[in-house]
Write a structure and sequence with these properties.
Layout lengths: L1 H15 L4 H25 L3 H5 L9 E2 L2 E2 H22 L8
Antiparallel strand pairs: 1-2
Length: 98
């Protein structure tokens, strides 16, 4: 249910504010990179923790960047939506500092 809500939020927001597509993609990718770092450190400290912790009978057993694929999707969606939430809610524009 949570993933569907985030996807609906994306559709709603990006349909109204096209200018937020790039920031959403950037913050989503940044969140995935951060999660990958944390998962890599956890796997370094406790090898095999992903296989022990995740119940792979209900989700695909695909691991990219030391992160299960369903978590990559979740971090990308949530990171991207949280990254654009403020600009959407306050109806502000993102200014370039270059």
């Amino acid at each position: 249910m949570g993933t569907q809500a985030v996807i609906l939020f994306y559709i709603f927001v990006l349909n109204k504010r096209i200018d937020l597509i790039k920031p959403a993609l950037f913050t989503g990718l940044l969140t995935v990179v951060g999660a990958s770092f944390v998962y890599t450190m956890m796997n370094f400290l406790t090898p095999g923790w992903i296989e022990e912790f995740w119940y792979f009978k209900n989700v695909p057993h695909i691991i990219l960047l030391n992160v299960p694929i369903d978590d990559i999707c979740w971090y990308f969606l949530v990171g991207g939506s949280l990254g654009i939430y403020y600009e959407f809610w306050t109806q502000t524009k993102i200014e370039s500092h270059s």
